[in-house]
Amino acid sequence: MTFNGTWKVDRSDNYEKFMEKMGVNMVKRKLAAHDNLKIIIEQTGDKFSIKESSAFRTLDLDFTLGVKFEYSLADGTELAGSWAVEGDTMKGTFNRKDNNNVLTTTRVIVGDELVQSYSYEGVEAKRIFKRG
Fold first, then answer.
1. Residue 46 pLDDT grade (very low, low, confident, very high; cuts 50, 70, 90)
2. How far is Cα of residue 57 from the mean position of the Cα atoms in its chain?
3. Could you tell me which PANTHER family the record lists for this protein (predicted)?
4. CATH code at 67?
5. Range 9-24 average pLDDT
């Protein structure tokens, strides 16, 4: 199982509803639905380097599995949490700093796609990426 590579968003499922539940305003939700997000993942042992680029921002994120860290989503929402690997799945569990609610994100390779799933306050969404 390797997440290494360049991944470009291909399609989304329930992503706008998820962003609404997260408190993202309508204008930002509409823009994010067409952000052309690209993720570059490089893993070395339990260390990950993630580079995200979209029409709105570029983010470089380095973390170690199981080690808590802080970062901000594109809309400015601040989170703290960590990633773990469970079988073939990367699972991130993060608490929002403003309300302490939990955001869970998973990444799994299905065929030739990276499926990134989100769960927040009972709303689930997916973004599916193709190698690019």
1. very high
2. 14
3. FATTY ACID BINDING PROTEIN
4. 2.40.128.20
5. 94
